[in-house]
Amino acid sequence: DVQLQASGGGLVQAGGSLRLSCTASGFTFNEYSIGWFRQGPGKDREAVSAIPSNRPDVTYYSTSVKGRFTISSDNAKKTVYLQMNHLKPEDTAVYYCALATAPLAGLWRGEYDYWGQGTQVTVSS
Predict the structure, then answer these.
(1) Using one digit for the tens of pLDDT, what is the confidence trace for 3-20?
(2) Exposed (0-12), middle (13-18) or buried (19+): which is 110, by Cβ within 10 Å?
(3) No. of H helices and E strands in the chain?
């Protein structure tokens, strides 16, 4: 079974940084996408960033995080990282990583078939 393990969340002051990790396991297909999504208090789940496994030079960001967050991947470890800088209180959310078998799924939530358990990010003002 496909499993996704997200980690790295925590409590940070506004302006600070965190790095989230998502490690995938339990599958053999070589092309896929890993996406990060978040759900803040009282909000719908929204896309944050995504990266295809076979095109690490292709990255997707929502407008709210572009320029502050950076996604990267280590395919040998099947791990994707989300470096979050200049964090704002509005970034507070549970962050989920997800896997799509479509290699260019981008930020389309409906393309993602497998979801991790989420990691809490809290940014204090």
Answers:
(1) 999 999 999 999 999 999
(2) exposed
(3) 0, 11
